[in-house]
Specification:
The chain is mainly alpha-helical and 283 residues long. 54% of the residues lie in helices and 3% in strands.
Length: 283
């Protein structure tokens, strides 16, 4: 923990933004929920744009239609919410929810796991693709290309909620979060994640999609997304405070559950990229 006598005088001030945008009676619209909705809508719009651009695909033939993506939105939303909640319960706080099972339904209190949400969405996409006769990997690719902005928006919402803050720091970039019981300067790790997972990863995928047109190689774009997210998450975990109910793992002062869950993603993404199908020679 930083020594109060050595703290810099130029700490950044935490902006006090109300997590609730507005309320109508008992109904409250929060930045956190808006982040999910805006992210899903952007992903839907962007994926439609990709399938409406034939030159991005092998032989100029998109493997799905915009209507397919319209129908996918509901499937994906269910996968995100159900998978994210179940993943958080299983990976991060199982004992609490076993003791208070009704809390599992209290989504407004937060508690979503990206890794769980990804698994839930992946299952939803597999089922949807099979029902429509769409190549599963092509569906993964087109959806993955538009996911990073949603991740960035949700991380910004975490910052507004003053949750999931970083480890204590004596650097000038440190902030004192109002929800921190210790009231010490901490890394704004939510913004680090928003930058890496949202801005940087989206830029990398956009370059691959619109430059060398890597949608023509099934699973390369989705593999890049999975590996890129895993690497970004592992990097940020060195600055992020671990969940208090878990702490650091295996007696270390650095290993976190987020790292453990992200390593398989890096390996799976690397496999997908290295085994991606080559572009059609006539495309």
């Amino acid at each position: 923990m930083p020594d109060i006598l050595t703290l810099p005088l130029s700490l950044l001030s935490y902006p006090q933004i109300d997590p609730v945008i507005f309320s109508i009676g008992p109904l409250s619209v929060r930045w956190y929920g808006l982040g999910y909705v805006a992210g899903i809508l952007f992903g839907w719009w962007y994926s439609r744009r990709l399938v409406q651009t034939p030159r991005l695909w092998a032989q100029g033939q998109p493997p799905m239609s915009p209507v397919d993506l319209d129908d996918l939105v509901v499937w994906a939303a269910i996968g995100i919410v159900a998978g994210g909640r179940i993943g958080y319960i299983l990976f991060y706080d199982l004992q609490r929810y076993l003791a208070h099972p009704l809390d599992m339904l209290a989504l407004w209190e937060g508690g979503m796991s990206f890794h769980g949400g990804m698994l839930g969405t992946t299952l939803a996409m597999i089922l949807f693709a099979r029902s429509r006769g769409i190549p599963v990997w092509s569906l993964f690719d087109v959806v993955a290309a538009g996911v990073p902005p949603a991740l960035g928006l949700v991380r910004v919402a975490n910052f507004i909620n003053a949750e999931l803050w970083g480890r204590p720091t004596d650097a000038a970039i440190g902030m004192i979060f109002p929800t921190d019981p210790l009231q010490v300067p901490r890394h704004p790790s939510q913004l680090y994640e928003a930058a890496l997972e949202g801005v940087v990863l989206f830029a990398v995928l956009a370059i691959l999609v619109w430059g060398p047109k890597m949608l023509r190689r099934q699973r390369f774009v989705s593999g890049t997304f999975v590996a890129g997210y895993g690497l970004a998450r592992i990097a940020v975990e060195f600055f992020r405070e671990p969940d208090p109910q878990l702490g650091y793992l295996l007696g270390t002062d650095w290993l976190t559950m987020g790292m453990v869950l992200s390593v398989p993603m890096v390996l799976a993404g690397a496999w997908a990229m290295t085994t991606a199908r080559r572009p059609d020679a006539t495309a």
